[in-house]
Amino acid sequence: MNSRERILSAFAHLEPDKMPIGFGGHRSTGISAVAYARLRDYLDLPQKTIKVYDVIQMLAVVDEDVLNYIESDVIDLGRAFTDDKKVWHDWVIHDGVEYKIPVWIEPEVHKDGWAIRSSTGKIIAKMPKGCPYFDQIYFPLEDGRLPGSNLPEIMEECMWSAIKIPGPMTSTLKSDEENIEIARKFCEDTDRAIIGTFGSSLLERGCQLFRHDNFYLMLAYEPQKAKKLFGILTEYYLENLEKYLKTYGEFIDIILFGDDLGMQTGPQISPKMYRELFKPYHKKIWRRAKELADIKVMLHSCGSIRAFLPDLIDAGIDGINPVQISAHGMEADRLKADFGDKLVFWGGGCDTQKILPTGSREDIRRHVRSQIQALSPCGGFIFAQVHNIQSDVPPENINAMIEVVKEYR
């Protein structure tokens, strides 16, 4: 099999010729720029200025030599738009390290760290000195008003939607026709499965727009207002989804949506609240995606989400990520036994909270073997660590994980 066939066989719940590897395939299976630089040095790869495509999370573009070393079977369509030198400019952070970041992002020195402004001049994100990523500090609807036709403008004042990563829908350096040709050539030149990241969160977006406390109160005390908000957001997402998939759907195999529903200790909301307030809108978006293109639908949702899985499956998802095995009720063997014939598990291969940062080489090898043995039988598993590798993870630990994965496959 080639890589694309290997990934699609996993979605068909068939055992492929080799265990599929999904490291670096999207912005929740990646690696911190700091950890990535150290990994390249450890692997004795050529030195280069690291490209940070996701400035909020300080995530590095994983170069082809590292993807080949890891034997990754998947790649993000957004990578097609990261080779153009015009996309990047230099940014030197406080410790003197130089990075490349997208030209449309211009962090400015602010007190003890960095700040990023929206197009209207508001400071929407800050990264204090010594912090590994940016935090949202401005919530455009914290006064409680609902958006209307001004939603696009409001989204430009929300950190998670305003600070964009390179991709077909954010590239303004070329015409639409040129962007389509870039995507077409990218698809033709790789045998890796291609993932398109879309987002379209509801619970997360509510927190990002209204602030967490305000939004949770809305859910509890003003459910009709929440439904009205979700209706407005859904129409906005569907308009963009139509444009995205009608233009680029033929070039992707999997579309990734995101909405963090879980915490470490359990769900953020009750399954009843999810069914009544969220599910109808998720269902509308995910099913429309499958109508527009021949693609698989995956949901990124952190934390303990086991309680939601029956409803998520019914709403139309084919796979979940990051499979946060350290969260309550997210044990790999139980997930596989109860949902392995219905869901693809993209992640769960290595715990990134405790094992990967602090475990010994043998701890990591033993843990990864155990996770693979629990999740890989009968297909439906694509190896990736749980979420992104953070800046404090030693390169020898990352390589220990990679080595056992390559041995197993």
Report on this model:
47% of the residues are buried. 40% of the residues lie in helices and 15% in strands. The radius of gyration is 20 Å and the shape is globular. The protein has 15 helices and 15 strands. It has a single domain (3-29, 63-77, 139-408), classed as TIM Barrel. The strands form 3 sheets. A 7-stranded parallel β-sheet has the order 3-10-11-12-13-14-15.
Labels describing this entry:
single chain, 409 residues, alpha/beta, TIM Barrel, seven-stranded parallel beta sheet, four-stranded mixed beta sheet, 15 helices
What layout of secondary structure does this protein have?
Blueprint (H helix, E strand, L loop, with lengths): L2 H9 L21 H10 L7 E5 L4 E2 L3 H7 L3 E3 L11 E5 L5 E5 L5 E3 L2 E5 L5 E6 L6 E2 L14 H5 L3 H4 L13 H14 L3 E7 L3 H8 L1 H10 L1 H26 L5 E5 L12 H22 L3 E5 L8 H7 L3 E3 L10 H8 L4 E3 L8 H4 L2 H15 L5 E2 L12 H14 L1
Parallel strand pairs: 1-5, 3-10, 10-11, 11-12, 12-13, 13-14, 14-15
Antiparallel strand pairs: 1-2, 4-5, 6-7, 7-8, 8-9
Helix pairs in contact: 2-15, 7-8, 9-10, 10-11, 14-15
Q: Within the largest sheet, what's the order of strands?
A: 3-10-11-12-13-14-15
What's the helical proportion of residues? 25-40%
> From the alpha-carbon coordinates, what is the Rg to the nearest angstrom?
20 Å
Q: Remind me, CATH topology?
A: TIM Barrel
Number of strands: 15
Largest sheet: 7 strands, parallel
List unreliable stretches of 5+ residues.
none
Beta content: 5-15%
Query: Could you say which overall geometry the principal axes of the C-alpha atoms support?
Result: globular
Order of helices and strands: HHEEHEEEEEEEHHHEHHHEHEHEHEHHEH
Secondary-structure class: alpha/beta
